């Protein structure tokens, strides 16, 4: 990475990562910072190689130090790789905005004098390697030991096995010491074994501790190897309960380093029959429980991917990944047990996931509508234009995802899908499905996103009969004359839906919805935020867009929500030139604040001391507007700032964050992300 690059450290207390090595990440960041500030003797270093076998924590150390991380190299184009690296060393790349012509000439002359008679394009692999070695021989290595010392190993083990505030019981200390010796300071090994043993507490679990201790090969203590790491991860897999083994093996169908959407996977588990029904519990809740147990055992790495968060739509998607070494084991286990196999007869399929596939035609759709055993059908991101009416013949279908397609509507025959639990619909234009009469027959529906009700009081009334519905996105189409009778009936229906936990409403003055809502999104102009919002004591996330409300009234209501952790104030959320969150408006639980595009209206965002003391992430979308942020220094626990806008508009608002960083230790610095899109 460039020596001039700004390097900061994320002080993330993330217990869901495979490998916990914040100390090593900080050490690497300190050395990179020393180079950047001119303390390091070697001013020319541009690449830091973090090498070692799987489980050392290389990726997390690099990402923790905010160093760009390159994943596994296949070795298929070694010659091309060496050629590209050598070119970067011998042929300087300069920024013509910051370097004048005289300096460019000087750099090029220096490069030419250091590499006479070298033709990189004609060299074979051996010559390239020799030349590269010659040019790197005079560079001193930057060493960062990724293994944990005895104290760090013990702290990590105890935090995973007993919790960060609980000590190791006396009768397990000998077994713990022996296990730690065999793990030899390897973070992934320690986390895997500790997470496994967390399920076995003394006195009943002591025998399992001894069994695990004896199962780890003693050769790991003196000569840790890749094979030894595989043995430890295989041990973790082998001690999973039977129902979790099947769910883990299912992950073998995904490629290495693939970010898997959690919601997508849970629904596929259910459709494949991997989630056994239990009386009193819905399968989605069971699947969520299975997934959470895998996360707690550190079998998968849970990530809330910021890249999937869309500032315009307010879309957030939980994602996760599987460690590449664990994936190797899962593929091996899957092959041994013939868990995944090719199906010759497609009519027997239960899951068909075509997300982001291109070239889907009407002929393909006709064939799909004859797969009568289908339980899961995803056409998300495809170019399908028409949904055949025969879709209603798929009587076993539980999940239908047609988001981001070219569909403008769905046939009325969809109402025949009485087992359907999840119906996800919106096209590229963010419109919705015009709900037909008969929607009340779909009693199994738990998730309906997003729908539109237009001029049909009967449909508005039928929605109130969907007693299982937990997530609903719905709006009244303002493209036609508003029917107040429909609006009132829809509002009345929503107030009766006691299972509802997630609600997205647009262009609708709703009556008070059920009190157990955890997510609420309101879109559409209103004079003031409804007073009933402050009664939603379980609300965790709130999003507002196009509301144009008064700022003082807005924050007066929202500060009374005791569990509000994420606040998204989207486009045109406020009117007035100056937004102030007062000290008296205390948001005690708020962790994340996102401010959307407010063109030519609000010029100042001000935060008084004590108003939002626990905010950890701040995102502001400036667009083409110049705005002031006053009081950011009062965000004492701030960890990440993301600004989106034009280069000129962002310079003034970045300075206060830089000043905050200058007063912090390197391990506590705020991560600054800037995106120029204007």
UniProtKB/TrEMBL annotation:
<dbReference type="InterPro" id="IPR036388">
    <property type="entry name" value="WH-like_DNA-bd_sf"/>
</dbReference>
<dbReference type="InterPro" id="IPR044974">
    <property type="entry name" value="Disease_R_plants"/>
</dbReference>
<feature type="domain" description="Disease resistance protein winged helix">
    <location>
        <begin position="253"/>
        <end position="329"/>
    </location>
</feature>
<dbReference type="InterPro" id="IPR058922">
    <property type="entry name" value="WHD_DRP"/>
</dbReference>
<dbReference type="InterPro" id="IPR032675">
    <property type="entry name" value="LRR_dom_sf"/>
</dbReference>
<dbReference type="InterPro" id="IPR027417">
    <property type="entry name" value="P-loop_NTPase"/>
</dbReference>
<dbReference type="GO" id="GO:0002758">
    <property type="term" value="P:innate immune response-activating signaling pathway"/>
</dbReference>
<dbReference type="GO" id="GO:0043531">
    <property type="term" value="F:ADP binding"/>
</dbReference>
<dbReference type="Pfam" id="PF23559">
    <property type="entry name" value="WHD_DRP"/>
</dbReference>
<dbReference type="Pfam" id="PF23598">
    <property type="entry name" value="LRR_14"/>
</dbReference>
<dbReference type="GO" id="GO:0009626">
    <property type="term" value="P:plant-type hypersensitive response"/>
</dbReference>
<keyword id="KW-0611">Plant defense</keyword>
<dbReference type="InterPro" id="IPR042197">
    <property type="entry name" value="Apaf_helical"/>
</dbReference>
<keyword id="KW-0677">Repeat</keyword>
<feature type="domain" description="Disease resistance R13L4/SHOC-2-like LRR">
    <location>
        <begin position="341"/>
        <end position="645"/>
    </location>
</feature>
<dbReference type="InterPro" id="IPR055414">
    <property type="entry name" value="LRR_R13L4/SHOC2-like"/>
</dbReference>
<dbReference type="GO" id="GO:0042742">
    <property type="term" value="P:defense response to bacterium"/>
</dbReference>
<protein>
    <submittedName>
        <fullName>Uncharacterized protein</fullName>
    </submittedName>
</protein>
């Amino acid at each position: 990475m460039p020596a001039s690059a700004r390097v900061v450290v994320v002080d993330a207390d993330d217990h869901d990562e495979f490998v916990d090595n914040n100390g090593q990440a900080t050490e690497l960041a300190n050395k990179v910072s020393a180079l950047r500030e001119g303390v390091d003797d070697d001013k020319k270093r541009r690449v830091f190689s973090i090498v070692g076998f799987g489980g050392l924590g290389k990726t997390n150390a690099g990402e923790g130090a905010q160093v760009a991380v390159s994943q596994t190299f296949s070795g298929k184009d070694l010659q091309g790789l060496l050629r590209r690296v050598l070119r970067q060393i011998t042929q300087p790349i300069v920024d013509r905005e910051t370097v004048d012509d005289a300096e460019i000439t000087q750099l090029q002359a220096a490069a030419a004098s250091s590499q006479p008679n070298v033709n990189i394009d004609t060299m074979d692999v051996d010559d390239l390697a020799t030349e590269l070695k010659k040019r790197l021989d005079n560079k001193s290595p930057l060493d960062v030991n990724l293994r944990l010392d005895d104290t760090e190993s013990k702290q990590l083990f105890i935090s995973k096995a007993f919790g960060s505030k609980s000590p190791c019981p006396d009768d397990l200390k000998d077994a713990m010491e022996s296990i730690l010796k065999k793990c030899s300071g390897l973070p992934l090994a320690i986390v895997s074994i500790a997470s496994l043993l967390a399920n076995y507490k003394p006195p009943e679990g002591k025998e399992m501790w001894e069994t695990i201790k004896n199962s780890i090969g003693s050769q790991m203590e003196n000569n840790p190897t890749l094979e030894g790491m595989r043995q430890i991860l295989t041990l973790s897999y082998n001690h999973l309960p039977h129902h979790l083994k099947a769910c883990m093996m299912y992950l073998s169908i995904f490629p290495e380093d693939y970010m898997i959407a959690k919601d997508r996977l849970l629904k596929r588990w259910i459709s494949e029959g991997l989630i056994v029904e239990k009386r009193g519990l819905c399968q989605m809740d069971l699947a969520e429980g299975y997934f959470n147990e895998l996360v707690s055992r550190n079998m998968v790495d849970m990530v809330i991917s910021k890249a999937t968060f869309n500032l315009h739509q307010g879309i957030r998607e939980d994602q996760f990944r599987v460690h590449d070494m664990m994936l190797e084991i899962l593929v091996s286990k899957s092959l041994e047990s013939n868990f995944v196999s090719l199906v010759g007869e497609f009519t027997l399929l239960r899951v068909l996931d075509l997300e982001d596939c291109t070239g889907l035609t009407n002929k393909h759709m006709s064939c799909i509508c004859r797969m009568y055993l289908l339980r899961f059908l995803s056409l998300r991101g495809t170019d399908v234009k028409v949904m055949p009416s025969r879709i209603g013949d798929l009587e076993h279908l539980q999940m239908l995802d047609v988001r981001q397609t070219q569909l403008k509507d769905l046939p009325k025959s969809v109402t025949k899908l009485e087992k359907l639990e999840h119906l996800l619909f919106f096209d590229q234009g963010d419109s919705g499905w015009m709900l037909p009469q008969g929607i009340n027959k779909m009693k199994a529906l738990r998730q309906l996103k997003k729908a539109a009700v237009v001029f049909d009081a009967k449909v508005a009334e039928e929605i109130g009969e969907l007693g299982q519905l937990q997530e609903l996105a719905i709006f009244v189409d303002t493209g036609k004359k508003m029917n107040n009778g429909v609006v009132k009936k829809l509002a009345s229906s929503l107030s009766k839906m006691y299972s509802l936990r997630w609600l997205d409403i647009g262009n609708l003055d709703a009556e008070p919805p059920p009190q157990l809502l955890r997510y609420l999104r309101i879109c559409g102009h209103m004079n003031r935020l409804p007073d009933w919002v402050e009664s939603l004591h379980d609300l965790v996330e709130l999003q507002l867009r196009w509301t144009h409300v008064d700022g003082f009234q807005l924050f007066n209501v929202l500060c009374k929500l005791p569990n509000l952790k994420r606040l998204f104030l989207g486009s045109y959320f406020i009117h007035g030139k100056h937004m102030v969150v007062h000290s008296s408006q205390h948001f005690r639980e708020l962790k994340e604040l996102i401010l959307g595009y407010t063109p030519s209206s609000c010029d100042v965002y001000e935060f008084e001391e004590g108003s939002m003391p626990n905010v950890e992430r701040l995102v502001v979308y400036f667009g083409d507007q110049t705005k002031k942020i006053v009081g950011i220094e009062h965000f004492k626990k701030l960890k990440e700032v993301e600004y989106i806008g034009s280069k000129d508009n962002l310079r003034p608002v970045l300075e206060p964050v830089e000043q905050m960083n200058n007063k912090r230790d390197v391990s506590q610095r705020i991560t600054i992300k800037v995106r120029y899109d204007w």
